[in-house]
């Protein structure tokens, strides 16, 4: 296997199509897919030998595997992850699936627990997989938080709660963040996190932001009144205190000690604002997540996949989740819209009832 993590964008059209056909064939039948089968389905006319060479290259990259002595290939966990992230075509929810879910959700009692029990049964029946329903519960205190940069516009937050629950959420970080700034944000939050929930942590940071802003105002007031300084974009996130009309922020002058204190407070204010954004984004955590095999510790030994989506209350806070557990060769294109639709419907029902 190659040491370099493969990228779907680096594949040529032939490799991408062979890879996609192998994965789709495996997801449909559960059997290895051979080169002769692919010669009948590929969009271009190529020989079985050519296809075998492409499959060997994909195996070298760690995307395909040959079980036993079979000439066919199946996707690896890495291959399935790449397929789900880059090539999965999610279908529309079928009318029959929608009808079954709607019937379950509009049928029966007002009790939320009873509703979620029926949802679990309905999801199992519709998908032929085991269902997962996490009911609304109190927001547990945070034990530890970690931010992991995945790409320029994607990051992972790992939340470890005091009750032992662990959650992973994907979010888009504030612009300009680096892995080191994310570590700093996590270190600050962890230093004050004990016994605090995400919501209460947000309140603590908000109060610190207000306090820093008040300190800056008090120190800057004399400078502004004397005409030595003026505000630009006052009160906004890109505010600056411009000294003596020069564009660079907080240059040195006679009030050096005040200016140095203001400079330190500005740096601290900016960090607190970034941390507040991190906490807001962490709480949102929307969207269907797909965990494959050992990506989810709970199912790492069983070769299973989990497709899960959170549902929210009227304040857009996550209060629970629904999902489907099945073999790694789940029909992801069909399961994802079912889970997504179910989560949206539950969220709406709970919001309406509240």
From TrEMBL:
Pfam families documented for this protein: HrcA
Gene3D superfamilies on file: 3.30.450.40, Heat-inducible transcription repressor hrca homolog, domain 3, Winged helix-like DNA-binding domain superfamily/Winged helix DNA-binding domain
Gene Ontology biological-process annotations: negative regulation of DNA-templated transcription
GO terms assigned for molecular function: DNA binding
Signal peptide (from-to): none
Keywords assigned: Repressor, Stress response, Transcription, Transcription regulation
Domain annotation Heat-inducible transcription repressor HrcA C-terminal: ranges: 115-336
Protein family per UniProt: Belongs to the HrcA family.
Function: Negative regulator of class I heat shock genes (grpE-dnaK-dnaJ and groELS operons). Prevents heat-shock induction of these operons.
Family annotation (HAMAP family): HrcA (MF_00081)
Protein name: Heat-inducible transcription repressor HrcA
Higher taxonomy: Bacteria, Pseudomonadati, Pseudomonadota, Alphaproteobacteria, Rhodobacterales
């Amino acid at each position: 296997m190659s040491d370099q993590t493969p990228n779907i964008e680096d594949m040529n059209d032939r490799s991408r199509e062979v890879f996609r056909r192998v994965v789709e064939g495996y997801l449909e039948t559960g059997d290895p897919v051979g080169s002769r089968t692919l010669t009948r389905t590929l969009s271009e006319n190529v020989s079985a030998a050519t296809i075998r060479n492409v499959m060997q290259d994909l195996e070298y990259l760690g995307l395909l595997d040959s079980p036993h002595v079979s000439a066919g290939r199946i996707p690896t966990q890495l291959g399935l992850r790449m397929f789900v992230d880059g090539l999965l075509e999610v279908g529309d929810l079928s009318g029959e699936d929608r009808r079954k879910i709607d019937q379950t959700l509009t049928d029966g009692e007002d009790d939320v627990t009873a509703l979620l029990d029926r949802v679990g049964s309905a999801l199992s029946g519709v998908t032929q997989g085991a269902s997962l329903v996490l009911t609304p519960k109190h927001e547990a205190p945070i034990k530890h938080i970690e931010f992991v940069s995945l790409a320029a516009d994607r990051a992972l937050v790992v939340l470890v709660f005091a009750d032992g629950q662990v959650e992973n959420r994907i979010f888009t970080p504030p612009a300009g963040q680096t892995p080191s700034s994310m570590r700093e944000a996590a270190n600050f939050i962890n230093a004050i996190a004990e016994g605090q929930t995400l919501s209460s942590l947000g309140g603590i940071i908000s109060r610190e932001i207000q306090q820093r802003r008040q300190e800056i105002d008090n120190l800057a007031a004399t400078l502004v009144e004397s005409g030595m300084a003026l505000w630009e974009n006052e009160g906004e996130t890109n505010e600056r205190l411009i000294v003596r009309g020069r564009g660079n922020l907080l240059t040195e002058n006679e009030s050096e000690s005040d200016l140095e204190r203001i400079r330190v407070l500005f740096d601290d204010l900016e960090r607190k604002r970034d941390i507040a954004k991190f906490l807001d984004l962490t709480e949102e955590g929307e969207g269907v997540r797909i965990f494959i095999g050992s990506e989810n510790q709970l199912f790492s030994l069983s070769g299973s996949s989990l497709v899960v989506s959170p549902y929210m209350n009227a304040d857009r806070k996550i209060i629970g989740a629904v999902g489907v557990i099945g073999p790694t060769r789940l029909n992801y294109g069909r399961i994802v819209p079912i889970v997504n639709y179910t989560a949206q419907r539950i969220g709406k029902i709970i919001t309406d009832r509240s």
